[in-house]
Automatic annotation (TrEMBL):
<dbReference type="GO" id="GO:0048793">
    <property type="term" value="P:pronephros development"/>
</dbReference>
<feature type="coiled-coil region">
    <location>
        <begin position="131"/>
        <end position="203"/>
    </location>
</feature>
<dbReference type="GO" id="GO:0005737">
    <property type="term" value="C:cytoplasm"/>
</dbReference>
<feature type="region of interest" description="Disordered">
    <location>
        <begin position="1"/>
        <end position="68"/>
    </location>
</feature>
<feature type="coiled-coil region">
    <location>
        <begin position="421"/>
        <end position="462"/>
    </location>
</feature>
<dbReference type="GO" id="GO:0003146">
    <property type="term" value="P:heart jogging"/>
</dbReference>
<feature type="compositionally biased region" description="Low complexity">
    <location>
        <begin position="45"/>
        <end position="54"/>
    </location>
</feature>
<dbReference type="GO" id="GO:0001947">
    <property type="term" value="P:heart looping"/>
</dbReference>
<feature type="coiled-coil region">
    <location>
        <begin position="246"/>
        <end position="329"/>
    </location>
</feature>
<protein>
    <submittedName>
        <fullName>Coiled-coil domain 40 molecular ruler complex subunit</fullName>
    </submittedName>
</protein>
<feature type="coiled-coil region">
    <location>
        <begin position="491"/>
        <end position="518"/>
    </location>
</feature>
<dbReference type="Pfam" id="PF08647">
    <property type="entry name" value="BRE1"/>
</dbReference>
<feature type="coiled-coil region">
    <location>
        <begin position="643"/>
        <end position="677"/>
    </location>
</feature>
<dbReference type="GO" id="GO:0035082">
    <property type="term" value="P:axoneme assembly"/>
</dbReference>
<feature type="compositionally biased region" description="Basic and acidic residues">
    <location>
        <begin position="11"/>
        <end position="32"/>
    </location>
</feature>
<dbReference type="GO" id="GO:0005929">
    <property type="term" value="C:cilium"/>
</dbReference>
<dbReference type="GO" id="GO:0060287">
    <property type="term" value="P:epithelial cilium movement involved in determination of left/right asymmetry"/>
</dbReference>
Length: 977
C-alpha cells in the first residue's frame, strides 16, 4: 500500500508540475496586481538574506542538502498534496452542484500544465528563493574551506614560530647589546651636537649683533652720503671738502678692522716699548753726562769762534754783495715762476673740470648700475612669483582632479554604505524579533559561555603579558650587552685619544722648550747687539767730537791758508812769481788728509745705517717670537683644559660602566624569572587544552539538540507546504468553475440562436439576468484566484523565512551567538555607518573648501595678472620718465659746472689775474677740430648702435650729449649767421 501510495504521489507531483507550466502564461497578466501586497515582505526577505550571511552564522551545507533532498520527506509531502487535492475537488463539487450535463466533466481530475500562467509566478518565486539558497550555500562552502585552510596554515605557522622563538631569543640578546652601543654613541653624538649648537648659537648671536651694527652704520653712512650729495649740488667748494671727508670716513671704516687687529699688537708692543724706553733713559743719562763734558769743551771752542767771528764779519760783507746779485737773479726767476704758475693754474683748472666730469660720470654709472640691479632683482622676483603661481595652478588642478576622483569614490562608497545600512536595519528588526523569541532558551548557555570566555580571556591576557615581559627583558638584556660592548669600544677610543693628546702635549712642550731656548738665545744676541750698538754709539760720538774738532781745525787752517794766500798774493804781487813754500806743501797734505777723513766718515755713516737696519730686523724678530710664545701658551692651556675634560669624561664613563654592570645583573635575574614564568605558561596551556576538549564535548551535545530542533522546524515546513498545496487545489477548482461557466455561456448562445426571438423574449431576459449574475460571480472568482496566487507567493516567502530561522538555529547550536554578540555587531555596524557618514561629510566639506579655495585662487591669479600688467606698464612709463629726468639732471649738472667754471674765469678777469693765452683764431680752429671729432664719434656710435642694438642702453647718454652739442653748435651758427 505504501509503495502504491508513493507511486501515486509521484504521478500526481509530475502532473502538478505540468499543470503549473500551463497555468504560468495566464498568471503573467495578473502578476502586477499580485506582487503589490507581497512586495515589501519579499523585499524584506531578499534584503535580509545577504545580511544574514554577515550577521547570523550559516549552518553546514551538508545538513541543508539532507533536509531538502530527503526522499522519505518528499514522498510524504506529495502524498499529503494528492490527498488535499482530492478533498478540495470533492468539496468544490458538492458546493457548486453543477447541472446534469456536466457530470462527466466533474468526474475528471483537472491537472494544470507546469507552463500554465497561474503556476508561473509561484515557480518564479521558488526558483529565485532556491537560487539564492544555492548561492548562499556555495559562499558558505568557500568560506568554510578558506577558514579551514587558514586554520591549518596558522597552526603550521604557529609551530614554526614556536620553533624559531628560541633561536630569536639569542639573536635578540645580541641585538640588545648592539642597541645599547648605538644608544651610547647616539648620546655622545647628542652631547657633541648640543655643545656645537650652543657654540653656533653664540656665534650666530654675535654675527647678528655685528650685522645689526653694520646695518646701522651703513644706514647712518647712507644718510650722511645723501646729505653730502645734496650739499654738493648747492656749492662746489664745500663739495670738495665733503668729498675728502667721505673718503676719510671710508678709509676710517676700512681701517677700523685693521685698527682692531693692530690694537692687540700694540698692547704687546707697549711692554717692549716700556723696556726700550727704560734702556733709552739710561742711555740718555749717559749722553747727558757726555754732553756736559762736551759743553765744557765747547765753551773753550766759543772763545776760538769769537776770534773767528771777526774774520767772518769781513767775509759777510763780501757775502752781502753776492746776496744782492742773488736777489736780482731771484726776482728774475720769480717772474718766470709766476708765468709758470699761471700756466700751471690754468692747467690745474682744466684738470679739476675734467676730474669733476669724471666724478659725475662715475656717479651716473653707479646710479645706472644700481637701477639696473634693482630692475633685475624686481624682474627676478616677478618671474619667481609667476613660476610659483603657475606651480600653484598646476598643483591645485591636480588636487582638484584627485579630490573629484576621491569624491566619486566616496559617493560610491556612501551609496554602498547606505544600502548596507538599510539592509542592516532590516536584518536588525528581524533579528530583534527572533532574539526576543529565543532569549529565554539561550540565557543559560550565554552565562556559561560568558564565564568560559572570561576565563579564556584572562588566561590569554596573562599569556600576552608574560610574553611581553619576556620580550622586554630580552630586549633589555641585549641592550645592556650592547651598551657594555659599546662602552668598551668607546673606552678604547678614548684611551687612544688620551694617548694622542699626551703625545701632542709632549710635542707642544718640546716645541715650547725649543722656543724658550731660541728666545733666550735671541735675548743673549740682543744684549750683545745692544752692547755693540752702545759701543758703536760711543765710537760715533767720539768720531763726531773728533770731526767737530777737525772741522774747527780745518776752519782755523782755512783761515790760516786764506791769510797765507793773501800773503802769497802780496808776495807774488811784489815779486811777480809764486813759488811753493813749505806751508803750501803742508796745506796740500792736510787737504789730502781731509779728503781721506770725509771718505772714512761716509763709510762710517753707511755702516751705521746698516747696523740700524739690522737692529730693526732683530726687534721685529723678537716681536714675532713673542707672538709665537703667546700662541703656544694659549695652545698649551687649551690642551691642558681638553685633557682635564677628557679625564672627567673617562670618569663618567667608568661610572656608567658600573651602572651597566648592575643593570646586567638585574636583567639576568629577570631572565631567570622569565624562564620560570614560561614553564608556568606551558603548564597553563596544557590545562587550557584539557578544558578545550571538555568544551568540545559540550558543543557536540548541543549540536545534537540543535538537530532535533531542526527536525521540528522541518515538520513545520511540511505543514506549510501542505497549506500551499491546498491553496493551489482551490486555485485549480476556481479555474475549473470558470471553464464550466464558459461552457454554459456557449450553450446559452447556441440556444438563443435556435429559439425564436418573439416567443422566447421572457426567457431571454431571464437568461440576461443569469448572465449578469454569472459575470459578477466570474469577477469574484477572478479576485479569489488573484488572492490565492498572492497567498501562494507568500507561502514561498514564509518558506524562506523558515529556512533562514532553521539555519540560524543550527548555526547558533554550533557557535552559540549571544545577545551581547549581536548587540556588539549592531553597535559596530552603527559606528561604521556613523563614521562613514562623518567621513563623507568631512570629504564634502573638504571638497567645498577646495572648490572655494580654487575659486579664490583663480580670482587672486586674475587680479595678480592684472596687477602685473599694470605694474609692467607703469614700470615702462616710469623707466622712460626716469631716463628723461636723469638726462635733464645730467644736463643741468653739466650746465652748472660750466657756469661755475665761467664764473671763476669771469672773477679772474674782474680781478685781473686771468690772462688769455690764445687768440680767437686759434680758439676757432681748435673748436672746429673738436666739432669734427665729435661728428665722427657720433657717426661711429650710430653705426655701433645699428650693428649692435644690445648696447644702445649703455651708449644712450653719450648719444644724447652729442646730439645736444650738435644742436648747440647749430644754434651758435644760426645766431652768428
Amino acid at each position: 500500500m505504501q509503495s502504491a501510495g508513493d507511486e501515486e504521489g509521484r504521478e500526481e507531483g509530475s502532473s502538478r508540475n505540468e499543470r503549473d507550466t500551463n497555468l504560468q502564461d495566464e498568471g503573467d497578466k495578473a502578476e502586477e496586481g499580485a506582487t503589490e501586497p507581497s512586495a515589501p515582505e519579499g523585499d524584506s526577505q531578499d534584503q535580509s538574506a545577504p545580511q544574514s550571511d554577515d550577521t547570523v552564522p550559516q549552518p553546514h551545507p551538508d545538513l541543508i542538502i539532507v533536509d531538502e533532498y530527503n526522499p522519505a520527506a518528499r514522498n510524504s509531502v506529495q502524498e499529503n498534496e494528492a490527498h488535499l487535492l482530492n478533498l478540495n475537488t470533492s468539496e468544490a463539487m458538492e458546493d457548486q452542484q453543477p447541472p446534469p450535463e456536466d457530470e462527466e466533466e466533474e468526474d475528471e481530475f483537472i491537472v494544470l500544465d507546469p507552463e500554465h500562467p497561474l503556476v508561473r509566478r509561484q515557480q518564479a518565486a521558488l526558483s529565485i528563493q532556491l537560487n539564492k539558497q544555492l548561492e548562499r550555500i556555495n559562499l558558505e562552502l568557500k568560506e568554510k574551506l578558506a577558514v579551514e585552510k587558514a586554520v591549518t596554515s596558522h597552526m603550521q605557522e604557529v609551530g614554526v614560530e614556536m620553533f624559531t622563538v628560541q633561536e630569536q631569543l639569542a639573536r635578540l640578546q645580541n641585538k640588545l647589546e648592539d642597541g645599547h652601543q648605538t644608544k651610547a654613541q647616539a648620546e655622545a653624538k647628542h652631547r657633541q651636537t648640543q655643545d656645537q649648537l650652543e657654540t653656533i648659537k653664540s656665534q650666530y648671536s654675535c654675527t647678528i649683533s655685528q650685522d645689526r651694527e653694520a646695518e646701522a652704520s651703513v644706514s647712518r653712512l647712507q644718510t650722511e652720503l645723501d646729505n653730502v650729495m645734496q650739499h654738493l649740488l648747492f656749492t662746489q667748494g664745500v663739495s670738495e671738502d665733503l668729498h675728502s671727508k667721505v673718503k676719510i670716513m671710508n678709509n676710517a671704516r676700512r681701517k677700523a678692522g685693521a685698527e682692531k687687529t693692530q690694537a692687540e699688537e700694540q698692547k704687546m708692543k707697549q711692554d717692549l716699548y716700556v723696556e726700550r724706553l727704560t734702556k733709552d733713559m739710561e742711555r740718555l743719562k749717559q749722553q747727558i753726562e757726555m754732553y756736559e763734558a762736551q759743553t765744557s769743551a765747547q765753551a773753550e771752542e766759543t772763545l776760538a769762534t769769537k776770534e773767528a767771528l771777526s774774520e767772518a764779519e769781513m767775509e759777510m760783507e763780501s757775502l752781502l754783495v753776492t746776496r744782492k746779485q742773488l736777489l736780482q737773479q731771484w726776482n728774475s726767476s720769480l717772474t718766470g715762476m709766476r708765468r709758470r704758475d699761471e700756466a700751471f693754474s690754468a692747467m690745474q683748472d682744466a684738470m679739476c673740470e675734467i676730474e669733476h666730469q669724471v666724478i659725475l660720470l662715475d656717479r651716473e654709472i653707479e646710479g645706472y648700475k644700481k637701477s639696473i640691479t634693482a630692475e633685475q632683482d624686481q624682474n627676478e622676483t616677478l618671474t619667481i612669483q609667476l613660476n610659483w603661481s603657475q606651480m600653484d595652478c598646476t598643483t591645485s588642478k591636480k588636487l582638484i582632479s584627485q579630490k573629484q576622483a576621491q569624491q566619486e569614490a566616496l559617493q560610491a562608497h556612501y551609496s554602498t554604505c547606505i544600502r548596507t545600512l538599510r539592509q542592516t536595519e532590516q536584518t536588525l528588526t528581524t533579528l530583534k524579533k527572533e532574539a526576543s523569541a529565543q532569549q529565554t532558551e539561550l540565557n543559560d548557555q550565554r552565562r556559561q559561555l560568558e564565564k568560559e570566555s572570561s576565563v579564556r580571556l584572562d588566561l590569554e591576557k596573562k599569556i600576552v603579558t608574560n610574553m611581553q615581559q619576556k620580550l622586554t627583558h630580552n630586549k633589555a638584556a641585549k641592550y645592556s650587552q650592547r651598551l657594555t660592548s659599546k662602552m668598551a669600544s668607546h673606552k678604547k677610543e678614548k684611551m687612544c685619544q688620551l694617548q694622542q693628546l699626551e703625545n701632542e702635549i709632549l710635542t707642544v712642550r718640546l716645541q715650547n722648550q725649543q722656543v724658550d731656548q731660541h728666545v733666550n738665545s735671541l735675548a743673549v744676541t740682543q744684549q750683545a747687539l745692544d752692547e755693540e750698538i752702545a759701543n758703536y754709539n760711543k765710537l760715533l760720538t767720539l768720531n763726531q767730537n773728533n770731526i767737530s774738532s777737525f772741522v774747527t781745525l780745518i776752519n782755523q787752517k782755512q783761515t790760516a791758508i786764506a791769510t797765507c794766500k793773501t800773503n802769497i798774493c802780496q808776495i807774488t804781487s811784489s815779486t811777480g812769481h809764486d813759488d811753493l813754500s813749505p806751508l803750501q806743501i803742508k796745506i796740500q797734505a792736510v787737504m789730502g788728509q781731509i779728503e781721506d777723513l770725509a771718505v772714512n766718515i761716509k763709510s762710517d755713516q753707511q755702516l751705521w745705517m746698516r747696523q740700524q737696519e739690522t737692529l730693526v730686523g732683530l726687534t721685529q724678530e723678537i716681536e714675532s717670537n713673542s707672538r709665537q710664545m703667546l700662541k703656544l701658551q694659549t695652545d698649551y692651556t687649551a690642551m691642558h683644559q681638553k685633557k682635564i675634560r677628557l679625564q672627567s669624561q673617562i670618569e663618567s664613563e667608568h661610572r656608567e660602566e658600573k651602572e651597566l654592570e648592575k643593570n646586567l645583573k638585574t636583567l639576568k635575574r629577570d631572565l631567570v624569572k622569565l624562564n620560570t614564568l614560561l614553564s608556568k605558561n606551558g603548564q597553563l596551556s596544557h590545562a587550557l587544552e584539557q578544558e578545550n576538549a571538555l568544551t568540545e564535548m559540550d558543543f557536540v551535545h548541543r549540536l545534537k539538540e540543535a538537530e532535533r530542533g531542526c527536525i521540528e522546524v522541518q515538520m513545520k515546513h511540511e505543514k506549510t507546504h501542505e497549506e500551499k498545496e491546498r491553496l493551489l487545489n482551490s486555485l485549480l477548482e476556481a479555474e475549473r468553475q470558470i471553464m464550466l461557466w464558459e461552457k454554459k455561456i456557449q450553450l446559452v448562445k447556441e440556444t438563443r440562436s435556435v429559439v425564436d426571438t418573439e416567443v422566447r423574449q421572457g426567457e431571454i431576459q431571464v437568461m440576461k439576468a443569469e448572465i449578469h449574475r454569472m459575470e459578477v460571480r466570474l469577477n469574484q472568482l477572478m479576485k479569489q484566484r488573484e488572492r490565492l496566487l498572492r497567498e501562494s507567493e507568500a507561502t514561498v516567502a514564509r518558506r524562506e523565512t523558515i529556512v533562514l530561522r532553521r539555519e540560524a538555529m543550527v548555526h547558533n547550536s554550533h557557535k552559540q551567538t549571544t545577545k551581547g554578540d549581536l548587540s556588539r555587531l549592531i553597535q559596530g555596524l552603527q559606528r561604521k555607518t556613523q563614521e562613514t557618514h562623518k567621513h563623507a561629510e568631512e570629504c564634502e566639506q573638504v571638497i567645498r573648501e577646495l572648490s572655494q579655495s580654487q575659486v579664490s585662487l583663480s580670482d587672486n591669479l586674475k587680479k595678480q595678472k592684472q596687477q602685473l600688467i599694470e605694474l609692467c606698464g607703469n614700470g615702462y612709463m616710469l623707466d622712460s620718465d626716469f631716463e628723461n629726468l636723469q638726462d635733464t639732471k645730467d644736463r643741468k649738472l653739466a650746465h652748472l659746472v660750466a657756469l661755475q667754471s665761467r664764473t671763476k674765469r669771469l672773477q679772474g678777469v674782474c680781478k685781473g689775474s686771468y690772462k688769455a693765452f690764445s687768440s680767437s683764431e686759434s680758439v676757432g680752429e681748435a673748436l672746429q677740430g673738436q666739432m669734427e671729432r665729435m661728428h665722427a664719434a657720433s657717426a661711429i656710435l650710430h653705426r655701433i648702435c645699428e650693428e649692435f642694438p644690445q648696447h644702445q642702453g649703455a651708449l644712450r647718454k653719450t648719444l644724447k650729449t652729442l646730439a645736444e652739442l650738435t644742436q648747440q653748435e647749430q644754434k651758435g651758427t644760426w645766431e652768428s649767421g
